[in-house]
Write a structure and sequence with these properties.
Low-confidence stretches: none
Order of helices and strands: EEEEEH
Oligomer: single chain
Strand order of the largest sheet: 3-4-5
Helix content: 25-40%
Radius of gyration: 12 Å
Largest sheet: 3 strands, antiparallel
Structural class: alpha+beta
Strand content: 35-45%
Number of helices: 1
Number of domains: 1
């Protein structure tokens, strides 16, 4: 799970494994595998960075 910020400043958490694509138009649009779309304050680069960090963290978790 990664923490992101809606345009109105509200923080929320999304399952990074459900991210299908991320676009900059200029706001950052995230499309999930369910075809839901989210618009966030973070840049594309920041969302990718957080998703990679999440992926690395779950692979390093003991017992998995």
């Amino acid at each position: 799970m990664i923490k992101l910020t809606r345009l109105n400043g509200e923080e929320f958490v999304v399952n990074a494994e459900l991210i299908q694509s991320i676009e900059s138009r200029p706001d950052t649009f995230i499309t999930l595998t369910s075809d839901d779309r989210l618009i966030v304050r973070e840049s594309v680069e920041e969302v990718v960075k957080r998703a990679i960090a999440y992926s690395r963290a779950i692979r390093l978790a003991p017992g998995l």
